[in-house]
Specification:
- The chain has helices at residues 4-7, 12-38, 52-63.
- By secondary structure, the protein is mainly alpha-helical.
- The chain has one domain (12-63).
Length: 69
């Protein structure tokens, strides 16, 4: 199996940016789930998902900033 590291590699700046990108992704999903929870119509067919899941993911990324070179 051929992975990304076999073709190219991330430099230290790109690796440092990854945590910020992952935090941003967690915030985006967290806000979407909060919006859905607040504005969820009673007759909606869509099942609500717990926003706390992504709050925990965001907290994890805030606490784990180690970069392996």
């Amino acid at each position: 199996m051929m992975g990304f590291e076999n073709i190219s590699s991330l430099n230290i700046q790109e690796k440092a940016s990854m945590n910020v990108l992952l935090r941003g992704a967690a915030v985006r999903i967290l806000v979407t789930r909060l919006h859905d929870k607040i504005f969820h119509p009673d007759d909606a067919l869509v099942k609500l998902k717990d926003p706390k899941e992504y709050l925990n993911i965001l907290k994890w990324h805030q606490q784990n900033t180690r970069i392996d070179s």
